[in-house]
Design brief:
The structure is a homodimer of 319-residue chains. Chain A has two domains: 3-52 and 152-317, 3-Layer(aba) Sandwich (Rossmann fold); 54-146, Rossmann fold, CATH 3.40.50. The first copy, chain A, contains 14 helices and ten strands. Chain A has helices spanning 3-17, 30-36, 54-68, 81-92, 107-115, 127-140, 153-169, 184-196, 212-219, 243-250, 259-273, 283-290, 292-295, 311-318, and strands at 26-27, 39-44, 73-77, 97-102, 119-123, 144-146, 175-179, 201-207, 253-257, 299-304. Chain A has a six-stranded mixed beta sheet, with helices on both faces. In chain A, helix 3 packs across helix 4 (81-92), helix 7 packs across helix 8 and helix 11 packs across helix 12. Chain A is globular, with a radius of gyration of 18 Å. Chain A starts with a helix and ends with a helix. At the A-B interface, helix 11 and helix 14 of A face helix 11 and helix 14 of B.
Amino acid sequence: MDTIKVKESIQHAAESIQSDVVNTPILQSQYINDKYSVKVIFKCENFQRTGSFKFRGALYGIKQSIKEDKDCQFCGHSSGNFAQALAMAAKINQKKATVFMPQNAPQTKVDGVRYAGGEIVFTGNTIVDRENAINEFLTTHKNYKGLHPSNDYSMIIGNATITLEMLSENSDLDMVIVPVGGGGILAGTALAAHHFAPHIKVYGAEPSGAADAVASLATGLIQPSIQPQTIADGLRTQLGDVNFPIIQRHVTDILTVDDDETIMAMKDVYQYLKIVIEPSSALPLALIKKYPKVFANKRIGIIITGGNLDLINLAEIFK
Amino acid sequence: MDTIKVKESIQHAAESIQSDVVNTPILQSQYINDKYSVKVIFKCENFQRTGSFKFRGALYGIKQSIKEDKDCQFCGHSSGNFAQALAMAAKINQKKATVFMPQNAPQTKVDGVRYAGGEIVFTGNTIVDRENAINEFLTTHKNYKGLHPSNDYSMIIGNATITLEMLSENSDLDMVIVPVGGGGILAGTALAAHHFAPHIKVYGAEPSGAADAVASLATGLIQPSIQPQTIADGLRTQLGDVNFPIIQRHVTDILTVDDDETIMAMKDVYQYLKIVIEPSSALPLALIKKYPKVFANKRIGIIITGGNLDLINLAEIFK
């Protein structure tokens, strides 16, 4: 990709979605900084509309698509957060959205889609189930455009706007850490850092029970996510052909943590940062604790990707 | 009190503590607004230093005391939040703080005091136990000044700065609701509203199992808090002779909710606002749901007073 074009795309996306997205707060905790021997700022996309960062890419993707075809409607598949984001972004633009979700999606994410007026089609629990269902739908619904939750250039550029916002008030960061599932937020973060603050290292945090991205980087080929075992329901997916080359080129490294480490970090976020996050969002802090040689004494930006989870699951985690 | 003097005191307090306090974020949830048929803004003092609004008054009280006697040290009694606030505010001013806490204070509040370098003296669980202990301490520690968590003019004025901040960006509110325990935040809020936006009605939200403030207003005499039964550990205390006259004069009404209603509201705050709050902070939203004739279709400011609680208690609440 042309360097100037990417930079302009990210700026264009930021301007294009600005009036409809929340410029999310940045929080810090002296206690967490002391405990982990770092200086961390948390960019809180759990306060984004629909409770996750996915709203930015969904909105930008819809706006771009409407430019090309003003009569199109939208569909997508999602384990939950993208479903809510797509439904709300469509609603804002007076469009319909049909989303394909696994039967085991958290109830709060299902409720969120319905609240935004989205139509839900439940599928089996694997990505292949969802992709098959949406492909069949698209063959019979010619006016619908399918938007991919992570492997789509508009999503990646939409995600990049988070880092752009974060850097506008915190240009002195050494590194940024984000979780890795489908790779959309990691690719967007890496692109934004590369084009606006190339001194910043970008790390991915992946569950050790779903470490397909680490394997993909190691082999140079996208590895499937087969029977992922992790509490982080947003990170059970795999990389795609649009985001993988960006990740290969611009990401410093992807490191893993297990679910126990994720839960420990999650507790620290609830206790000291006072915010509600879903398990996926705890991985970057868990990474800092596990790999002090990489992260100690650094100025680190963490993107809190979302806060959608069933409270009954919190009871299980905190008991 | 002289009107001009009060107004100037609040402005003076705001300037005096500004560089050491967090100008806490204001959050909203479209979902909550729709569900409760209101427009609510939440001023999030759970993001204040030490995790509660108490830091403002403690800091202002200490700064004012040091002006009068630069060599004094500090002590106070608290069920937890004021203890942490006093310890941290003392530390910032290179002072010592000794706090008298009940044995049943949440562990996180105990840890917070220790983190801030405060010295803890555990007492029995009643207010009388704490007051007796601190009075005995003061007879033998002449260089110590006792600061009261709620019945002290500096605390009340410090608390008033929250409403001042909230109004600076939201002057169009119809009313503000805050919880009532010792009465400090209610008196501070009422003073600020009266002097900066007299059209705003101020309501107190009190647990029905600890409704001494309602009884105090009804009888015109401060009623003791005898065997309070409520999940809201910060609201088990009673009004005092400094804040009661302010509450009598400037508060529109105090209404009650029971613990089940509080827990329902607490769940909504976690689920839709994505923030960690202690039970006491959920009462104002519970009030809105219970009394639609008073609150429906109004523009309402709610002060989220704190976010300090043991996560194990969340497991119990959300199960």
